[in-house]
Amino acid sequence: MGSYSTSEVLNAAAVGVHHPALRLHELDLKGSMSAEELPTTSGLENGHQAPFVIGVAGGASSGKSTVCKMIIDQLCDQRVVVVTQESFYYGLSDEELVHVHDYNFDHPDAFDTDLLLSCMEKLKHGKAVDIPSYDFKTHKSISCARKVNPSDVIILEGILLFHDSRVRDLMNMKIFVDTDADVRLTRRIRRDTIEKGRDIIAVLDQYSKFVKTAFEDFILPTKKYADIIIPRGADNSVAIDLIVQHIRTKLGQNDLCKIHPNLYVIQTTYQVSNVLTF
Questions:
Q1: How far is CA 236 from CA 33, 58, 60, 76, 232, in A?
Q2: C-alpha to C-alpha distance for 61 and 28, rounded to whole angstroms
Q3: Do 6 and 27 meet the contact criterion of CB atoms below 8 Å apart?
Q4: Is 224 exposed, middle or buried (0-12, 13-18, 19+ CB in 10 A)?
Q5: How far apart are CA 100 and CA 103, in angstroms?
Q6: Within the chain, what is the greatest distance between any pair of CA atoms?
Q7: CATH architecture classification, 48-252
Q8: Domain extent listing, the chain
Q9: Average pLDDT taken over every residue of the chain
């Protein structure tokens, strides 16, 4: 069988011409597309397979960490790492520590987003990075950074991940965990009093002064950027199962590209479906 360009096949299909045993690898793709236009999910760059980056955002105590753990548990056959936005809090100065109860930890300016971007770029290019460790009792970054190696899947988790367009552009999938406000408040009280040693009065005061307002002003508006919204958070096991299935499909395409470095995995479109049908 000869080689046909995609334009020839589509034109022939319009007038009813049938090409028997048509195979996608025999289409003259390069004759009809430039190198920049060739569709691919290989993500190869200098021999390195680009990781699949998942962003998990939502209000404080919405269940983001639990959702991430459920995804990791189901992707047990893949290399997965989690990078949390909380690791990139700015350390507080001595003056800010004096008035720590007046500091808004839920504001975009509380995070060192440039450092987060720098670490993510290195991971995407196959380089190991040192992720800062933040102490929530002293409100400073501590010296023992966590070394993170490149992986097949990187899960970014944080309340304000979708706020900065530069961070959003890093992600292949964006998930928003949507949990009732009363449930989030109850979880926050339990977490901050037990895990962080805070007084319940201080927790409630911080919630009413900063957390609730920041959620309405900065976090909730970013819900529109999500590809997937998970109502009820980790309780929605059906949604998480579907997400994991989609990730596995994408990773399966990447595995093909690792075995066949010159392979282009064409995304399913209306036109491609027509070619396959004819």
A1: 42, 15, 18, 20, 6
A2: 52
A3: yes
A4: exposed
A5: 5
A6: 79
A7: 3-Layer(aba) Sandwich (3.40)
A8: 6-42+263-277, 48-252
A9: 80
At 230-250, the pLDDT tens digits run 999 889 999 999 999 988 888
List the one residue out of 195, 230, 189, 228 whose CA is nearest residue 211.
Answer: 189
Strand partners, 54: 155, 173
**H-only helix segments in the chain:** 6-14, 29-32, 64-74, 94-98, 113-124, 165-168, 181-194, 200-206, 212-214, 237-259, 270-277
Tokens of 13: 């299909």
* DSSP reduced 3-state for 160: coil
Report CA dihedral (261, 266, 267, 272) to the nearest 10 degrees.
Answer: -170
Question: What does the block give as tokens for 17?
Answer: 């011409």
CA–CA distances in Å: residue 190 to residues 139, 183, 199:
20, 11, 11
pLDDT of 77 reads 67
**Taking the complete model, does pTM exceed 0.85, yes or no?**
no
What gap in Å lies between CA 223 and CA 36, rounded to an integer? 32
